[in-house]
Automatic annotation (TrEMBL):
GO terms for molecular function: kinase activity. It is a multi-pass membrane protein. Keywords: Cell membrane, Kinase, Membrane, Phosphoprotein, Transferase, Transmembrane, Transmembrane helix. It is found in: Cell membrane. Gene3D superfamilies: 6.10.340.10, Histidine kinase-like ATPase, C-terminal domain. The keyword Membrane applies. Residues 315-367 form the HAMP domain. This is Two-component sensor histidine kinase. The chain crosses the membrane at residues 291-317. It comes from the Bacteria. It comes from Paenibacillus helianthi.
Amino acid sequence: MYFIRMMNDMRMKKKLAFTFISAAILPLLLSGLYLTGKLREIVINNAFMQVSDNVDRVRKRTEELIKVPLDISYRLSVDNRMKKVASREYANYGEVIQAYREYTDIRDYIQLYKEISGIRVYVENPTALNNWEFIQPGKSIMDQTWYKEAIDQKGLAGWNLIKNEQSDTESISLIRSFPVDAIGKKGVLVINVDQQQLSSILDQESFTTLIVDSRNRIVGSNEAELTGMNLSDIKVDEQILLNQEGSYNTVVKGKDSKVVIADLNPPNSWNGLRVISIITVAGITREADQVILLGAVVIMVSLLFAVLLIYASATLLSRRMLRLSKHMAKVGSGSWETYIHIDGKDEVGLLSKQFNTLLRSVHDLVQEVQETNAQKNLIEQRQSEIKFKMLASQIHPHFLFNSLESIRMEAHIRRQDDIAEAVWLLSTLLRSSLEAGSGNIPLREEIERVRCYLDMQKFRYEDRLEYHLTVDPVLQELPVPPLIIQPLVENSILHGLDNREEGAVITVEVKKIPDGALIKVFDNGAGFPPERLAGIRAELAEDVHEQESERIGMRNVNDRLVLMYGESSALSIESQPETGTTITFFIPGGVDND
């Protein structure tokens, strides 16, 4: 009903615009948002599947790459000729040089296999020399973590980013220890993976792709500046540092991203590598966003053109309606001789013709009414005088109560029990009010008058009004002034319920306290703003003799309480807007509990 009333009150231009927006723009926008979300989702899923395939391909190709140094390490670890060259005691440097010249396997491996860029054998032998193939490990090398791990792992292979002493560059390398002689002496074999071969695998990837060792050091990347850095240096989520194979949603460099991780665990190795591919959501959806933006521009231009057409149509229609409205205003001012002609056979044109016909008929009727008004006025004047005399003679309590009782009985006979109940409540309320004297009455009678009043109001407001009456049983006979609670309840309904469409709850609570009774009347109505509440409190705080002699409502109740019981019984009011109002007062005295 509210929507219909709002639409009826809306001007034609706004109504057509609202209809167009509701019927065209909103569905189009909702459909666009849904399709945009679906498009982004499809693009992200496709990119994710592509990245997963790429990561798997990089893992397989890298696995093939490192298989070469792994095989070479097996051969060298059982090569007795290599062990003899590395560990034999030499009498002079000539023997060392001659032995190195005769052993060409390491150089042959480097020339035959492009997958490796260098081989180094670390064996402690004071009689040997360093030639970048056989190296005497000094304390600085033996203290390196990778060297210690190789010795401790007893022949298992390991993979770490190690600096090449000759070229002073770092590259991913295989490390493993091997027995040098029968007494347990060990050496360490280091085979460098060719970094260019590794980069050629990674450079084919369109998204950021990394190969990371067990210490989260980036040993290879299609972004050269990242190689050698730690994974934590590129501001990835800490969970990615620990996560194993799988896909994850995370934040990289402050951007929402998807990360795909694949484990690369070479056989007979104490550690492995991880292939990590990072794709930013913005990078994936860039092209899709461009398509969406282009579509949005086309849609907006189309909508703008449609809006202009709607506005032109609405303007044409509203002008014709405005002419008809102005003509009606002239007729309303008393100009019955004017007629209007609006072109067109649509509803507005037909309406103007029908209005002209109606105007002629009304003009004829007005003349007839004017002729009969004089006679009717005279008759009504006489009837009013008679009614006044009848009312003056019959309005007294006995006639009023008998009449109400007759109405109630007639409603009861006609089985209109709700009307009968309402009449009975009204009769009871009037009788109790007229019979109220200046003396005190028992609290139960005042509560009954309040209940009767609330039932009458509930007949008016129906489900919008709910009330609760809570009275301590020992206070039923407590003497109180008449009409001391009912005006406060009436005030709660006036300022609470009438300003709230959803209704209100009125609660009356009477509690026994050591010195008498504490009475509260509160509602959940509209409440008073702070300025109004301060004004009410100031008005109630004025001296009783300085106020006007005739008071109603809260002022009347407050004056009687102060005059009868003193300032301690004055009304206390608490209220907040949209929360409700609570009125509290105290009546001294009590009732014997026996």
